[in-house]
Design a protein that fits this description.
The chain has 132 residues and is an alpha+beta fold. The chain has helices spanning 3-6, 26-45, 53-84, 123-128; strands spanning 14-18, 87-91, 94-99, 105-110. It has a four-stranded antiparallel beta sheet with strand order 1-2-3-4. Helix 2 (26-45) runs antiparallel to helix 3 (53-84).
Length: 132
């Protein structure tokens, strides 16, 4: 059960629970794809020799590809972990934003106090339906 669900007042209901856009995983995913592409290119283009410079080059490139792939996967896992501790919700009475795990920060605004809403979106954000 989420923080928002645990802290609803009697008669209060959740109208909207927002979440982060998938675009936040693109940097880590790009690094992982780069590592996988490098591994595939090395496997196809660098001949597998029985020894010598070709074999050591092939091994070194595979190690670099593995490091890139693992770094990308770890970056996406870290992003998913950090994002899992944030909650955003609009209820019938208030707006709630909770963030953090070790040090929790909660901001709540009664709907009567909300006077305007600003949405900022770049061109790429408009194409992919996200913004601040």
């Amino acid at each position: 059960m989420s923080y928002v669900e645990k802290n609803l007042a009697p008669g209060e209901e959740i109208l909207l629970q927002a979440r982060y856009h998938w675009i936040r995983f693109v940097p880590g995913g790009s690094v992982a794809v780069l590592g996988a592409a490098l591994a595939a290119a090395v496997g196809l283009l660098v001949p597998a020799g029985t020894g010598g410079a070709e074999s050591s080059l092939r091994s070194a490139l595979f190690v670099v590809a593995a490091i890139l792939f693992l770094a990308g996967i770890l970056a996406m896992a870290w992003r998913a972990l950090v994002d899992s501790f944030d909650e955003f919700a609009i209820t019938s009475f208030r707006v709630i934003r909770k963030s953090g795990f070790v040090t929790r920060s909660v901001r709540q605004f009664p709907l009567e106090k909300v006077q305007d809403v600003n949405v900022r979106s770049t061109l790429g954000g408009r194409w992919l339906s996200y913004g601040d």
